[in-house]
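Researcher: Please predict.
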Amino acid sequence: MTATTTTPVSLPVISGASTSRNPGAGIDYELFLDCVHCGLCTASCPTYLELGNENDSPRGRIYLMRAVTDGRLDLTSQVRRHLELCLDCRACETACPSGVQYGKLIEPFRIEMEKSGDERKSDDWFHQYILFSLFPYPDRLRWALVRPRIAQFLRLDSLAMNLDAGGWLSFLPTELRRMITMLPPAGNENQELPPVLPAKGRKRARVALFLGCVGDAMFRHTHWATARVLQENGCEVVVPKNQVCCGAIHFHAGSSEPAREFSNQNLQAFDLKDVDAILVNIAGCGAMLKDYGHHWHDDRQEDRAAFTAKVKDVNEFLDELGLIPPKGSIPVTATYHDACHLAHAQRIREQPRNLLAQIPDLKLIDLPESDVCCGAAGTYNLTETEMADRLGNRKLQNILSTGASVVITSNAGCLMQIIREGRMQGHKLTVMHPMEVLDASYRGVPLT
């Protein structure tokens, strides 16, 4: 990728009455001024790479937000659309030489944008009944998945692939049809994790494992693999039962208060004095948990700061702890995709690669554009399907160019997006979490 030249942003024409509320009023204005509009971020922005529109670049969106905040520009439908199309992948943050904190601009601005106008994106049935009332609750989601899982077991799910040509699920709304095509294969370990899993050998740490919502409902086998890897490394693993969704689904859709309630429940669920760290194996959840102290400034600020100080991604933690090298041979060629909220939001890139490098006979090939978003972006691939498909295809073509038979990534959304894209284009891909690959090596079993 090459950096683009600086081009003035073409502002939409101001039209109509101003909204009754200024979405940027509560944002520290100095954060806007950090951006010097150099354009180095554009080469890292997925939407700009695809569209080439300055309004869909990080500096363009900052310009738009600042203009609305200043009262120089109305928050029109056109402006809202440019801001809504952002994946919030934060690739611009790692590319920026000026240290612009883009997430601290786009996230609160979009939350206030949802409150301030008549065009509330989250008022539709899909947000209210699926994203907000189903996804954050793993027990509800498991029940909802019973019939699709049966269809998957009977291999009837393949009939849903050609949906646009009158497939048997064509009567369903587009969002629900898409959800079915995204359903990953069922794991072979669906039993609940026990409250405590003992360390193997000398005890080196006592850690709590965060399960999440979609992660617990769809990727419980990954949690089991994570727990076993931690046990092999001398960690006693605690699994608090009162933990809930991290709140990211609501928060990134502009619904802050329900996300705050989830955060407060998690503050109560984890006994910080009892563990050395709270470990997360889903990049999006980890980024959200680490930002609890930033998102809400209230009477629980001290508790949030103490909580976030304990949160670590499992790759980050094991790399710091010092991995006990596994001995089982994994003779496959793999490539690693950087999940946005691991590489950009948490700045964790080398740690998972360091761990994977210690697996005997595993050959890891560099992935072109490894840190360009795959299009998952939480629930973005369910609500912004056209852009998600463009980015999913871009990611798949890069994966295929490596010749790798296995794709490794540290985020549930990326796993589902890459699996779906391969499936829709007729490519059978094995997509796994780093902990699953390590677990297979520790146990001396082949990848499945």
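Model: Residues 342 and 348 are 5 Å apart (CA to CA).
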